[in-house]
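Fold these two proteins, one after the other.
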Amino acid sequence: MAKAYVFLANGFEEVEALTIVDVLIRGGVDVTTVSITDNENVTGAHGITVVADQVWDEADFSDADVLLLPGGMPGTSNLFEKRELCELVKQHAESGKLTGAICAAPLILGGLGLLRGGRNATCYPGFEQYLTDANYTQEVYTVDGNIITGNGPAAALPFSYAVLRAIQGEETANTVAEQMMFLKLMEK
């Protein structure tokens, strides 16, 4: 079973973090939420407190297939300040493993040099300046090899299905999207 880690920092965008967790679990992915602090209670940008599955010091990422960074402010800044997380993300992505970031969080990928060489990426408008040497697509979500980026809270579902598609395949992603009535919504 594929293993995904979703990182939570105070100020994270709740809909982005919880949507990806929900969609991946529905698609048969083993998901663990990780607080980057020493407290499992993490409060999002809109005051919603979530209890993470693990705190940073308890986690072992050796089984990680996917690393995911939700956006939100100051959540993204808090993630980017966690040096150990940045080292983990950089090593993971450079080894060709699936890495995703949504909203403001693609700035972390840009800041780590993971988008250099004109890789395609999207983000929340106004953060494109941090996508160092990337091709800013302005799309709802963008897939470029092992990097998936999304542009904001409204992209949470399409971004999540793109991640699920990359992990479990088209059929599983479409089945989950259909069960969640997403495909019916897109027909309008």
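Now the second one:
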Amino acid sequence: MYLYHYFDKRSGSFHSITALPPEQRNLILAKIKSERPDSMCAKRDPEYIEKRINCEAILREKFLEKGGIVEIPSPHYMVVEHSPWLSTWYEEGDFLKISIDEFDVRKISFTYGDSMPTFSPKVNDGKEYRWQVYTYEEILQIIKKYGLPQDWNDDGAYVPERYIEAHVWTDDPISKLR
């Protein structure tokens, strides 16, 4: 299994807006909207940062309940295997591909689909993976059952799941890749 991280070449890899001090978050989002209007990130609503912070709190809590190890307050975001759709998000897009073997999997949580709709009260379709955080061993079972979303829903016809999101709760080995 490989984990992918997509980013804009001008910003570099593994930068999370929620890892910034609160006073910088909205300034960075405004700068993205101004300088990169065609990027997916520029289309985020004004409440995005607050929603993302709340989502991260849920991810952290549920992962800790399962015995996961959390070393940093805001995770590094990656996805399981290549997502053609995510590769289009950035005006000057690039990606890093890292084998899961490079990580301590006890420090990675997963959601089947993006974590924001996974924990959204607006998504009420009764699917078993809603409101769920998975460990590595658990996500392997879910993949066996449902496959990779990008294989059956890359075009978003069966929204919202288009990829499996991985939340890396450590700087290892990411600090070597920045």
